[in-house]
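Narrative of activities, Objective 1.

The group set out to show that a structural description can be obtained from nothing but a protein's sequence at a throughput compatible with the screening campaign. Below is one input-output pair from the validation batch, recorded exactly as produced.
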Amino acid sequence: MRINFNTPSQYEKLNQDLEVTIYRIVKELINNTLKHASADRIDINFRSEEKAVMLNYCDNGVGFDVEHALQKRKHKGMGLSNIISRVRAANGRCLITSNKSEGTRVEIEFTTE
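Output recorded for this entry:
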């Protein structure tokens, strides 16, 4: 597995709660990729702007049907619902896109003011 992590060389320190939230989200995303995606590459791009922090996560795995996975979450693992809950709890926005044989992309944005 190759993980590429890109972040600006300088950025303002985030509040500790948001840092922990981002850490837990990235940890869950990596775990999901390792467990389900059969991927050999993950790209994580982290950037911040004046009033926002953005996290883009992509893998080159087998992909999945996002809507189906969210509907059956009551019966199986809690990975996606944990990610979405954490983003919402931090007043963030999350977009998960995936298609079979096309990998998965997760775009998350948090307002920092």
